[in-house]
Design goal:
InterPro entries: TM_pro_TauE-like. This is Probable membrane transporter protein. It comes from Alishewanella longhuensis. The structure is a single chain. By secondary structure, the chain is mainly alpha-helical. The protein has one domain (3-265). It has helices at residues 3-23, 28-41, 46-74, 80-103, 106-125, 140-157, 162-171, 176-199, 217-237, 243-265; strands at residues 211-212, 215-216. Helices cover 77% and strands 2% of the residues. It has a two-stranded antiparallel sheet.
Amino acid sequence: MAIEWILAFLALGLFAGFMAGLLGIGGGGIMVPMLTTIFLAMGLTAEHVVHLALGTSMAAIVMTSISSMRAHHARGGVLWPIVKSMAPGVIIGTFAATFLAAKISAQHLAIFFALFMGYVALNMLRPKKAAPAQPKAVGKVELATVGGGIGVVSALVSIGGGSLTVPYLSWRGIALKNAIGTSAAVGLPISLAGALGYLLQSQPGQDLPFAVGMVYLPGVLLMSAASFITAPVGAKLAHKLPVATLKKVFAVLLILLSLKMLLSVI
């Protein structure tokens, strides 16, 4: 791999890890559109770069998911009974959706990604509503079903599910601290199942060395190592920087990156 691509993957990992730690948002929203740009610059065809970006991003967020889960568990923020109930649905939904993604065109995947990131960005821009005073009873069947839906969407846009899990748990009356911590723990089975599913897909139409299925392994290793370094830094600075303002800037960045990816493949 040429030195410029090594530096590009490292820089992307550093930035995605820092923002994930600072704002509590997984790196997929940044990684997928930027990976699409990098793969296009490497000479890959537009027909397949989105699939490769989704798989590579999903595999790269495994390490940040582990780091985030451990940090929240140490602070007592994870409600493990909820994680255990959601995990089966999350794993099945995420794994199955990777096979669905393999059959969807790059253009349609890019449209879905852009629309979903627009939803995420709007949620970040609007004022937060207070959670209900009392938690609502949640059955295991509901948690498993909701987990399956979250897994499907997470695989199609390569995220750890936080933008869906946190609002759902908050709506169910779970305190925000626990909703975020539990979501972080749910993100690990999402990333593992998604990474495995994308690894098992057939390579999408190009002869790319060190690519297994829809995952470009050198990119995964470089981004994982870089994000593992900067995620804790972002988390430490979360209490010192104007996070509310930064979230608005980040929301606009998500929209611009998504539109750029959409235009690149269409």
